[in-house]
Amino acid sequence: MKALTRFGFRTIALALAIAAAASTASIADAGAKCPNRFFKKVQVKGVGDTQPNAQTAYDNDLAKKIAAAKPDCDKLECEESDSESCTFLHTQSKKAKCTPQGPGFKCVGWIRPGCFCQEPDEEIK
Of 20, 40, 83, 125, which shows the fewest CB atoms inside 10 Å? Predict the structure, then answer.
């Protein structure tokens, strides 16, 4: 009986591990359709010995997070029109919140990446 219970727990643990691995996959792996929406916020932060250095580190992390999210839209398709393309867009914190932390400063904010179908002559305002 104990062996059967251990086997059941191991099977459940394996199933949960597989589900967790699948849920961390790229947005683009979810399917070929452009979702036309923004996704969850992604934290952006920077730490430095002075506030300007922390802001520079924040700006560098912001650029890195945008560059990492951008390819998720590249291979997705739009269904409404052949001329539309799945375009990466994002929103971001208006200004990083910089606070003293330990001997230096920490700046924190966020971006919210998204993929949207757009015509070539369409502009976001």
Answer: 125
In sequence order, the 6+-apart residues with CB closer than 8 A to the CB of 100 are none
Q: What residues form DSSP beta bridges with 100?
A: 105
* 46 contacts 96 by C-beta, under 8 angstroms: yes
Q: Which two tokens stand for residue 34?
A: 């452009």
The tokens for 48 are: 């430095």
> Per the structure block, which two tokens stand in for 93?
């914190």
- 114's tokens: 């998204």
The predicted model scores a pTM of 0.69
User: Do residues 63 and 111 make contact, with C-beta atoms less than 8 angstroms apart?
Assistant: no
Torsion over CA: 23, 27, 33, 36 (sign)? positive
Q: Summarize pLDDT for 35-74 with one digit per residue, the tens.
A: 999 999 999 999 999 999 999 999 999 999 999 999 999 9
